[in-house]
């Protein structure tokens, strides 16, 4: 890898996005009490961040294709910084909910320019085996953020009130801004301004030729993230309300499934750099592990069984995500990559946004919740079967 510092800076962008929700998972009950809201509305603490991000991601991708990734990333970081300050100071008010949700919305708008543009930027700056390695590394950074974010959130609230966790975002934003200015030359971010109609024609041609593959890849990623954050949302309340585990130990319990996902992402990403064709096998086995483990949860409900099977599930998801990143980013040229990758990011974010809302209703009937979860994983099996029939006709990874 030619520029490890640059990869490290770009890798902080997925961590920043992950912190937006994962750090709050173990402290949702505390935030809920601080905002004086009902438990039924607590899912919106997460979704007020993810829904604006999902809406803005396609526009951010379009703008980055025209005006440059680095410029849009830096603009997004300043928006996150402002939104985070609003969330932090909202606790000083008697009625903090409105200001808090406004800050979360701003965080979400800014987050639209983090992970999707990090993937697109890596696709622009690297090629071949190096691109696969860097894209795999981004998913590892994403996984590491998910592993440590709940522990950080739970650990800080032991000594400080819940709103202090939001001061981490401005600090990280400033570090990334400094790193981007030091490691990306301005001439690397120059874009040839293309007419909107010409740009639209190019995108239409891309989806006409490769949409049959891109759309199932989008859907697999979206369903995977829907299950990930939905299950984690359920786990946060289930551990505290049923087993009365709180604080640091509650955050620590998240490390098992998220750690498995990080390890498998690292393993998958490293092997993709030498043979992208292996990615189809990783998708197959990853979806298979998810389907098996989520099906088993219908019959086994103890805390130990729950942690074991979701650890297997997230390990399977970790195999799949680096492959999706590589296939989507490598399927198009630089001129359309921002939009195509951002659409993929938008679908993933829709999954993240809808997951907690759906599971906030589903958790009222746990057995039925497990059945619905298993049906979602079966849908991914069907999408994979569709992909196997289309992949050779539509797309062979590594050509772009």
Automatic annotation (TrEMBL):
Transmembrane stretches, start-end: 7-29, 41-63, 75-93, 165-184, 211-235, 247-267, 279-300, 306-327, 339-362, 368-387
Keyword Chloroplast: no
Topology of the protein relative to the lipid bilayer: Multi-pass membrane protein
Major localization listed first in the record, in broad terms: membrane
Keywords: Cell membrane, Membrane, Transmembrane, Transmembrane helix, Transport
PROSITE patterns attached to this UniProt entry: MFS (PS50850)
Coiled coil regions in record: none
Domain Major facilitator superfamily (MFS) profile: 6-392
Gene3D superfamilies: MFS general substrate transporter like domains
Compartments in which it is found: Cell membrane
Protein name per its UniProtKB record: MFS transporter
Organism: Rossellomorea oryzaecorticis
Lineage: Bacteria, Bacillati, Bacillota, Bacilli, Bacillales
